[in-house]
Design brief:
The chain starts with a helix and ends in a 14-residue tail after the last helix. The chain contains 28 helices and nine strands. Strands 1, 2, 3, 4, 5, 6 and 7 form a seven-stranded mixed β-sheet that branches. The relative contact order is 0.11. Helix 8 packs across helix 13. The protein is flat, with a radius of gyration of 28 Å. Helix content is 58%, strand content 9%. By secondary structure, it is α+β, with helices and mostly antiparallel strands. A hairpin with a 2-residue loop joins strand 8 and strand 9. The structure holds flavin-adenine dinucleotide (FAD). The site of flavin-adenine dinucleotide has 21 residues, from strand 1, strand 3, helix 16 and helix 17.
């Protein structure tokens, strides 16, 4: 007997049979969800030894001339047309001319290919549009976002029949049809697959012709664009009791396109989500009949709805909310920095107080990191990947960091950001934060179940194929595949254990950072160390807990956080390279790295402290977290250095803030920027007077201590600051109900 045959018979087979009997079978829905989408850089991180040469070779996403022209033209024009106060507080809707402009300029067809009349934009361009429009008005941003994300457009392009594409895509691209997507029902929110909405295959006469079709009954809620939609992408459970389309009675979750003017459809009522004015509402259908070719992808795709939805989400989820969040983080950092410079208390700008600088430093670093991750993710999407785990990481962590940044900016602004009115440029964003946290997969669930749960299976080099081998209905074929995988898997796990130990204890440099990494090379080595540690702890946890890990959500969430930090920190290193390796930007990189490394160690620590196997946890801790080589949080000096980037004009600030499009057409932000410029110009003079014991510059002017031009500068700065710190007030009548 050869060694391979012996190994298979005496080692692999007993393990295979035991595990096969013990592991619960995957439900078809679980299997479809796991298989949806692709893996990308996440798979490299999961392997425990990321290939930095491949990382450097990833093409940075760029904009074509046509895409840039769209940003400079229609997007800028749209931003100029939007008045968010008017939209959110007076109309509860976008004005008719804005709706017409959005349709005419094909904002709803950004992802639809040009041959169907769409704009055929890259992920980067799509993301830029969403980012810029959302900053001017979240209502407009969400309105643009939905048809280009979950809306039926993506589903049609990936799964529609040619006839469906030919009919629907041109109509969606030019806004003749307004789409929405209905998955969520009152009883089925996060557990959307448990929906009770039904479709029964049947025959009915239509215009006197006997027609094969589906009788639909549903109740959906929270559906964005629903109240104004002309076509509803509907998810429901399809059954075929009379076997009109096949053998199965319970066909499974399917997706159909339902015109909203059909008899039996009730649509039009509105929710008011966090006082945002984008169209959102419930809808119901009672005995609505659609022909069978309303099924997206036709009868062949009947029952594949869950997989189709997961695949469509894998692309859109990586763009929509991350783009809004990246814009929001930059906007929060920019406005907080300007305000902290303009607003004085105790005789000096509040930005000079360390307490405020603590918030500003974090704002600056968050803005740098989320924007880096947005750009990096667009690169993957533009390479054609639909990375399911990366999209979940982006959705979760970009929106969480947006929440932190918007909260920090609110704190720095004090009462100014709390009092609502046209002068408040932060209030609307603040109210929009929970929308981002909840939609496209609520964050608690995404963190607890999806990132590591799906990541472990999808991004792991062997696990998914092993799971499929264990589930193979042909036991012999399954055993053969399992035998081919499990030994490679064990070899990799052993190698990762050795690497994790050598790097953690002795700093052995295994990985090879990019040749141009310069002073950031050290960070690549740290990421190598943590990737190996993560791979090892993940393997050990999966091995000891198996399917029970699904119920230990806190462990899964912490492991997911480690994977997410590895991804986000990779993106930071990539941004620094792509932007031209500016030494001056390094404090931002260092701050992100220090925070990220500390988070990784805290999460690993949390996993090991709560691990059910104490002996295993003890051994793992000894390997990956040596007591004398623990991560330290960023120093106060580093925090202050990052904060200063928001308080002083500089190249770093220009790269960090870029062009803040919220300012376009937003008078209160324009005023803030003007006051900031004046405050910067006037500061040396103000400091000189203060050190000379002069508190009133008018007296100094009267005594001839400053000249007319200096007095004019101080007067302008003072009046600009007064405009900025002013807040709105209203007559009681103006606030009466029924405006
Ligand atoms: C403004 C807005 C717009 C929306 N637009 C659309 C749309 O266009 N189309 C559409 O179909 N849907 C839409 N939704 C629905 C959205 O996707 C759901 O709100 C979301 O999936 C969560 O469902 P739920 O609100 O019922 O929360 P629930 O399911 O009730 O969950 C409550 C909390 O429990 C957590 N939770 C649930 N299960 C678990 C678990 N196993 N582990 C850990 N935590 C868990 C959730 O994360 C959440 O924090 C929208 C929602 C909102 C608010």
């Amino acid at each position: 007997m050869s060694w391979n045959a012996w190994r298979r018979k005496w080692l692999t087979e007993p393990v295979y049979r035991r595990v096969r009997a013990a592991v619960p079978r995957l439900s078809p829905t679980e299997q479809q969800a796991i298989e949806a989408g692709d893996v990308w850089w996440d798979a490299q991180l999961f392997s425990g030894h990321p290939d930095w040469t491949a990382f450097r070779a990833i093409d940075a996403a760029t904009l074509s001339d046509q895409e840039q022209a769209f940003l400079d033209g229609p997007v800028a024009e749209l931003c100029g047309m939007l008045d968010d106060w008017d939209v959110s507080w007076r109309r509860y809707d976008l004005p008719a001319d804005v709706w017409a402009f959005l349709k005419r300029q094909r904002f709803f067809g950004m992802i639809i290919p040009t041959e169907y009349g769409g704009l055929g934009f890259s992920a980067r361009a799509h993301s830029e549009v969403v980012r810029r429009v959302s900053l001017r008005s979240v209502t407009a941003g969400v309105t643009v976002m939905v048809p280009n994300s979950l809306g039926p457009g993506e589903l049609l392009m990936q799964f529609g029949t040619q006839a469906q594409r030919d009919h629907w895509l041109p109509r969606l691209a030019d806004g003749r049809e307004i789409p929405c997507f209905g998955l969520t029902s009152p009883q089925a929110g996060s557990d959307a697959a448990s929906m009770t909405d039904t479709g029964v295959v049947c025959r009915r006469p239509i215009d006197g012709v006997d027609t094969l079709g589906i009788c639909l009954n549903w109740h959906k809620r929270y559906i964005t664009l629903g109240p104004v939609a002309t076509v509803l992408g509907l998810a429901f459970k399809l059954s075929d009791p009379d076997h009109l389309i096949g053998d199965k009675v319970d066909v499974g979750i399917s997706v159909a396109l339902v015109p909203t003017n059909l008899p039996g459809v009730s649509i039009g009522r509105r929710h008011l989500p966090a006082l945002q004015a984008f169209q959102n509402g419930p809808n119901q259908g009672a005995d609505v009949f659609v022909p069978i070719d309303a099924l997206i992808g036709g009868v062949e795709r009947a029952g594949q709805g869950w997989r189709m939805l997961m695949a469509a989400l894998a692309a859109g989820r990586g763009i929509s909310l991350p783009s809004l969040s990246a814009g929001a983080c930059v906007f929060a950092a920019h406005t907080a920095g300007c305000y902290a410079r303009v607003r004085t208390q105790f005789g000096i700008p509040v930005g000079r107080f360390e307490g405020v600088q603590e918030k500003l430093g974090r704002l600056a670093a968050n803005a740098y990191l989320v924007e880096a991750a947005r750009r990096f993710t667009c690169s993957g999407l533009d390479m054609g990947y639909k990375p399911a785990v990366v999209s979940a990481i982006m959705k979760l962590h970009a929106t969480e960091r947006m929440r932190q940044s918007v909260n920090d900016a609110m704190d720095v602004h004090g009462g100014k950001a709390i009092i609502d009115g046209p002068r408040n440029y932060l209030g609307s964003l603040y109210r929009a934060v929970p929308v981002g946290i909840t939609v496209e997969g609520a964050n608690i669930l995404t963190r607890s179940l999806i990132v590591f749960g799906q990541g472990a299976i999808r991004a792991h080099p062997y696990l998914m194929r092993e799971v499929l081998a264990l589930a193979d209905s042909d036991e012999e074929a399954g055993l053969e595949a399992f035998d081919a995988l499990i030994w490679k898997h064990l070899w990799q796990a052993t190698r990762n254990g050795f690497r994790a130990l050598s790097m953690a204890w002795f700093g052995v440099p295994f990985g090879k950072p990019p040749a141009d990494a310069g002073p950031t090379a050290v960070f690549y080595r740290r990421l190598d160390r943590y990737a190996a540690a993560f791979a090892m702890v993940s393997e050990a946890t999966l091995f000891s807990l198996g399917g029970a890990l699904k119920r230990r959500e806190m462990l899964s969430a912490r492991l997911g956080d480690v994977l997410a930090e590895l991804y986000l920190l990779s993106a930071v290193l990539r941004r620094w390279l792509d932007e031209g390796r500016h030494e001056a930007d390094l404090p931002l990189v260092r701050y992100c790295m220090a925070c990220g490394f500390a988070t990784i160690e805290t999460c690993l620590d949390g996993v090991l402290l709560n691990h059910p196997s104490r002996a295993l946890a003890f051994a793992l801790r000894a390997i990956v977290l040596p007591p004398l080589r623990r991560a330290k949080p960023p120093s106060d000096a580093l925090l202050v250095a990052c904060a200063r980037f928001l308080l002083e004009p500089s190249g770093v600030r220009s790269r960090l803030i870029g062009e803040v499009w919220g300012a376009r057409g937003n008078p209160s932000v324009e005023q803030l920027e003007r006051a900031f410029d004046l405050a910067v110009q006037a500061q040396p003079l103000v400091d000189r007077l203060r050190h000379g014991g002069v508190s009133d510059w008018r007296l100094a002017h009267a005594k001839g201590a400053i000249d007319d031009s200096q007095a004019k500068l101080l007067e302008d700065a003072e009046s600009a600051a007064a405009e900025v710190i002013a807040v709105d007030d209203f007559s009681p009548d103006a606030l009466a109900r029924g405006r």
